[in-house]
Write a structure and sequence with these properties.
heterodimer; A: mainly beta; 8-stranded antiparallel beta sheet; about 35% strand; B: mainly beta; 7-stranded antiparallel beta sheet; 6-stranded antiparallel beta sheet; about 10% helix; globular; disordered N terminus
Chain lengths: ~950, ~230
């Protein structure tokens, strides 16, 4: 006959009768009841009536409970052990499901037959169960119920959602949850709240009671008027069907968790197996039923009498069937309604029982003092629980074995044995740990007594040693027996590891962290930004740490060094031309792994704070043929390089001094300019009109081999070539700001006196490093051009950006000049040394203070010294090119030694525009 | 045979019978005669129409129909109905030719394994008829369906020779289980040449069957074969 799947469905608000003619009905409109005259179910719909207008219309008139399956297609009776009333309850429950009740009636759905796997969804917002239900995180909670199972409740309202979930039947992310009931509850609650469920410390390990596996005779005798000792090997049987007229009661008692009776049964029949109290005062539940005096003495035909808790096998389901006793509250075991792998009625042992072969049974107190009835699975060598009481037996209560033989078929095959705890055996909590990953160590015990007992019974003398594990978050000291343990296993305990003194052992895992969790914490450090040249001393290693650490920098030019002894990163950040990022890679390692992290140090390129008196923030940009600077007066009294307009020859000097010649008018000039190799440039010129005399420093050349020319003499016509004079050529340096210095002893030879050697000894060309102030000679080549005379009179004007007073310079020229200093030198006086030259170039204002103020200096026209302070503008002309206190586009460029002078030594901005006075940042000066 | 109509066709054309209005007379060309007289003289009712009825005790003292349990073993398949004719419940009003061809109108007892099979022998391929059954059904499950059919066996030389049936959906039972649904299926047919009389004493047969998709109790009251030869 076909099976019919009946189940309610919240989503469609319907109850389904799959594989029947009845279409789905709305939830709440179907009711099932027991048929009055037979063990069948009547199912009616409550939303329609028969002709009388009162009677509900019948959907199923006499429904056979054996045909009912649940949504998972499990037969409620045949597979799950439901009674007819249970099926009725199930149908009514399914017919009244509500979204909030899950189970429908608020008592929760029984999960005793199931293994449930829980997971969080990918967003950690939902808890999913593999029986099809899901809940939001933080909305449900697991509770360890007094019946020894897990119950799930709604967090709000404590509504029962699911009940009787065995803690051994729980998995998370497809992995079985370790530990005892409370551990599994804790783990689930961590999962439900998105907590660290994998790190729940096991505090409720499995206990192993070391009982006498061999057992002793339990003694006892047959009880009841129907009881007989049948012919043959059977110990007990019954002459007729009755639930309380034939049985066997042991003389021996058990009274501690872990103690039990064993015996063999055979033949398909009605047989009860349970525990009988010694003292009626110890009854838990119905005292009439639990009274040991009523065991198998007849009376009412019920299995309840005499039992505290008894579990019965019956021919119809071929095994586990029902429970009787003073308190028959039960928790189903896998041997009753688990998967077919465990069920008695689908096991070889079940087949043996049907075939009349003996099957070994166990009745006793489990480690939690629940009464348990189990069968021995010979193929797996394990006891498989059929049923247990949902309550524990009180401490010290004595219990006999009671076997009820309820029909003529059932047989007790062997005399029962009692298995009492070994007197010296402590309760053993076997544990193992995985530390580090993939290395397993066991057995481990929390007490030395357990470890020593294990050792004593494993070939040792009762000794042990201790272990602590860095990945054990509890840092517990564990005890390992000196014999029988392993510290190098590659897997969890298995096979013979799971048997101790012939007792089955269940190991509990010691929660340990993964190796990845034990690798050193990654170094964390905020990125650093510091100015170049900053001294750093960074501690990269925590005090007391034990891991190893290295640090590298990239690029390696930071100026910092990692000290592998002190673990400091030390040094001074290098000067940089632009902001530069250095990456520091810190690697930490220990035996569990390594972590790598980085941070950056950015060295910023900052202008140093200048110690110079001269500001150096401005420069004048001179571009094109017509832009230039020109002194406002061409008087020989104010144009120092005119040398008084004299046309006499002057001997030179070779003693480091200026010339002693009375006609000598020695001078010096220095400038800070921007050399641009792509442009023609005229740095200065003291020039008459074209074709006449000039002293100039300029370049018409561009590119890699360009030269700068110092020329004193004449040229031929407009833009003509140099004709009569002397030339000093030197290499034009690469682009950048430069400071140079030129002086002369006053030497002015005629055509017969001039030699390049004399020129070389009477002129000095110096370059000053703008950052360091270092002075170096500029090397070049002197050339005598034409007659080579330098004794012609020179009466022109001082220019910057123009070579000749009457003709424009190269239209492509471009020059930035930040300062120009022209100074008279006294006759027969020591030429400036490098210190003075350096200052003259890098800090001309300070040079005026240090070397000119309050001194006697030669006036431009004269050959004798005079008070500098009286006529400073005639001795020194310092143009700061915008940095002067009165410099401006409208004021033009004032001589810094006399800024009020507008008529003689001021430089006029010729054909220039206001933004030709630019802001500059000159490395080494600004 | 249909002698009455043959007789009318033999009246000469110039002597067409005139039927006097409001009279029960026909002028056959020679004299007026009554129609009854004419029919009496020319044909017999029993020659052209009849029925064969098998009634259960439902219609007699006691009033009990023949019950049949439809259980898990015989749902969703065609089953021969159980019908125990009452001792007074066989009405053999077959046409003369059928009676002349066979003394008995059916075979079988109506018990399990012995279905009632009505014989068609004596009927030519001009004949037609219908089978009506009276029944009730109390389903155990709501929303079931009852179908009926007449299953024919063919005569010995028929081609094709396989049985055939004429079916109908009789009941859609969606007013609940555990109540009686009554029905009188009536299936008409003609005597095709594979079931009509083949040779003397040999023709097809018919029997009534039902099919249910729910379990319940089928109560058969009668099966009647209405005959028009």
């Amino acid at each position: 006959m076909s099976q019919i799947k009946i189940y309610g469905d919240i989503d469609s608000a319907s109850i389904f009768f799959i594989n029947s003619t009845v279409t789905p009905k709305a939830l709440g409109t179907v009711v099932a009841s027991l048929k009055a005259d037979e063990d069948r179910i009547v199912i009616q719909r409550t939303d329609k009536f028969e002709d009388d207008g009162v009677t509900y219309r019948t959907l199923f008139k006499r429904f056979d409970a054996n045909r009912v399956c649940n949504r998972q297609n499990e037969e409620l009776v045949g597979q799950l052990g439901f009674t007819t009333q249970g099926v009725i309850d199930y149908i009514n429950e399914q017919a009244n499901l509500t979204g909030s009740s899950v189970g429908g009636d608020g008592t929760g759905t029984d999960l005793s037959a199931l293994t449930i796997c829980f997971e969080l969804d990918e967003t950690n917002t939902s808890i999913t169960m593999d029986n099809g239900y899901s809940f939001g995180v933080n909305t449900i909670q697991a509770v360890a119920d007094a019946d020894g199972t897990i119950h799930l409740y709604s967090k709000q309202g404590d509504r029962a959602l699911f009940t009787t979930l065995a803690h051994t039947a729980v998995c998370i992310d497809s992995l079985a949850v370790s530990g005892g009931l409370n551990d599994v509850v804790n783990t689930l609650n961590e999962l439900f709240t998105v907590g660290p469920f994998s790190s729940v410390v096991i505090a409720d390990p499995y206990a192993t009671m070391v009982a006498d596996v061999g057992g002793i005779s339990a003694g006892g005798s047959l009880v009841g008027t129907n009881a007989i000792d049948p012919a043959g090997n059977d110990v007990g049987g019954s002459t007729a069907t009755h639930y309380n007229l034939a049985g066997f009661k042991s003389a021996e008692v058990i009274n501690q968790p872990g103690e039990y009776f064993t015996f063999d049964i055979r033949n398909e029949g009605i047989i009860g197996m349970g525990l009988v109290l010694s003292d009626v005062a110890d009854v838990n539940g119905n005292a009439t039923y639990g009274d040991p005096a009523t065991f198998c003495v007849g009376g009412t035909n019920t299995g309840n009498y005499g039992y505290q808790f008894g579990h019965f096998f019956h021919p119809t389901p071929n095994g586990p069937w029902t429970n009787y006793g003073a308190n028959a509250a039960v928790v189903y075991g896998p041997g009753w309604n688990g998967s077919t792998d465990f069920r008695f009625n689908s096991s070889p042992e079940g087949a043996d029982w049907l075939a009349g072969s003996p099957v070994k049974m166990k009745v006793g107190l489990d480690s939690n003092a629940f009464i348990e009835v189990a069968y021995w699975d010979a193929s797996e060598s394990v006891w498989t629980l059929c049923a247990r009481s949902s309550y524990a037996i009180a401490e010290g209560v004595d219990l006999h074995l009671g076997v009820k033989l309820c029909d003529a078929s059932a047989r007790l095959y062997s005399l029962p044995k009692a298995h009492l705890l070994e007197p010296a055996a402590p309760t053993m909590y076997f544990r193992h740990i995985e530390s580090p990953d993939n290395n397993f160590e066991y057995p481990l015990f929390a007490t030395v007594e357990e470890a020593n007992f294990f050792d004593l019974n494993s070939g040792g003398t009762g000794t042990s040693h201790t272990h602590t594990y860095v990945d054990d978050p509890t840092s517990t000291t564990w005890y390992m027996p000196d014999n029988g343990g392993t510290m190098t296993a590659t897997a969890v305990p298995s096979g013979s590891d799971l048997v101790f003194m012939s007792n089955a052992v269940t190991y509990t895992e010691i929660t340990s962290q993964a190796d990845a969790d034990l690798a050193p914490d990654a170094f964390t450090f905020s990125d650093i930004v510091q100015a170049e040249a900053t001294a750093l001393n960074l501690q990269l290693y925590p005090a007391g740490a034990t891991f190893s650490q290295t640090a590298t920098l990239s690029p390696t030019t930071s100026g910092l060094v990692y000290n592998t002894s002190t673990h400091y990163l030390q040094g001074t950040l290098a000067d940089v031309g632009a902001d530069t990022v250095y990456t520091v890679t810190v690697t930490r390692a220990n035996s569990y792994g390594s972590t790598v992290s980085t941070f950056t140090i950015t060295a910023t390129d900052v202008a140093p704070v200048s110690s110079l008196t001269t500001p150096w923030t401005k420069a004048v940009s001179i571009n094109g043929a017509n832009e230039y600077l020109k002194i406002v007066h061409n008087s020989n009294s104010f144009n120092i390089i005119n040398m008084g307009g004299m046309n006499n020859d002057v001997w030179g000097a070779s003693n480091g001094k200026t010339s002693t010649d009375t006609d000598a008018r020695p001078w010096s000039i220095c400038q800070v300019v921007y050399i641009d190799n792509s442009q023609p440039q005229c740095y200065f010129s003291q020039a008459e009109n074209y074709a006449n005399d000039r002293i100039s420093l300029s370049t018409h050349e561009t590119g890699a081999s360009a030269k700068i020319e110092f020329y004193w003499g004449r040229s031929t016509g407009t833009n003509g070539a140099n004709s009569n004079g002397v030339q000093f050529l030197f290499d034009k340096p690469s682009d950048g700001w430069y400071g140079y210095y030129i002086d002369t002893t006053g030497y002015r030879p005629n055509q017969t006196q001039v030699t390049t050697t004399a020129l070389a000894s009477n002129f000095r060309f110096k370059q000053v490093n703008l950052s360091t102030g270092t002075v170096t000679d500029i090397t070049g080549t002197w050339t005598i051009v034409g007659d080579g005379r330098l004794d012609r009179g020179l009466n022109g004007d001082f220019y910057v950006g123009r070579e000749s007073g009457s003709q424009s310079f190269n239209s492509a020229s471009s020059l930035k000049v930040a300062a120009t200093l022209v100074s008279t030198l006294k006759r027969d006086f020591l030429l400036p040394d490098d210190t003075e030259i350096s200052m003259q170039v890098r800090d001309p204002q300070q040079w005026v203070i240090d070397y000119r103020d309050g001194t006697q200096q030669r006036l431009a026209y004269n050959n004798t010294p005079y008070s500098f302070d009286t006529y400073p503008e005639r001795c020194v002309q310092l143009w700061l090119m915008g940095d002067g206190s009165l410099d401006s586009y409208s004021n033009n460029l004032r001589n810094d030694v006399k800024t009020s002078d507008q008529n003689y030594t001021m430089l006029r901005l010729q054909n220039m525009v206001s933004n030709d006075i630019e802001t500059v940042n000159i490395t080494g000066l600004t | 045979m249909a002698r009455g109509t043959d007789f009318i066709k033999t009246i000469p054309a110039d002597k067409k019978p005139n039927i006097e209005k409001h009279s029960n007379r026909i002028n056959a060309g020679y004299e007026y005669i009554t129609i009854d007289t004419m029919l009496e003289n020319t044909t017999s009712t029993g020659d052209v129409q009849g029925y064969y009825s098998l009634l259960s005790n439902y219609y007699f003292t006691g009033g009990v129909a023949t019950d049949m349990v439809i259980d898990g073993n015989n749902i969703n398949t065609w089953v021969d109905v159980l019908l125990t004719p009452d001792a007074q419940g066989v009405f053999d009003k077959r046409v003369v030719s059928m009676k002349e061809a066979s003394d008995v109108g059916h075979t079988g007892t109506g018990a399990a394994g012995s279905p009632l099979m009505i014989q068609l022998v004596g009927l030519s391929d001009h004949a037609h008829g219908s089978v009506r059954a009276a029944l009730s059904f109390e389903p155990e499950v709501d929303e079931g369906r009852l179908e009926s059919r007449v299953l024919f066996t063919r005569h010995s030389t028929a081609v094709p020779s396989a049985d055939f049936s004429i079916e109908e959906t009789t009941l859609n039972m969606d007013s609940g289980a555990a109540i009686d649904y009554v029905a009188s299926p009536n299936i008409a047919f003609f005597l095709g040449d594979t079931i009509s009389t083949n040779v003397d004493g040999e023709a097809g047969t018919l029997r009534f069957q039902v099919k249910l998709d729910v379990q319940g109790i089928l109560s058969m009251r009668e099966v009647t074969f209405f005959i028009q030869s």
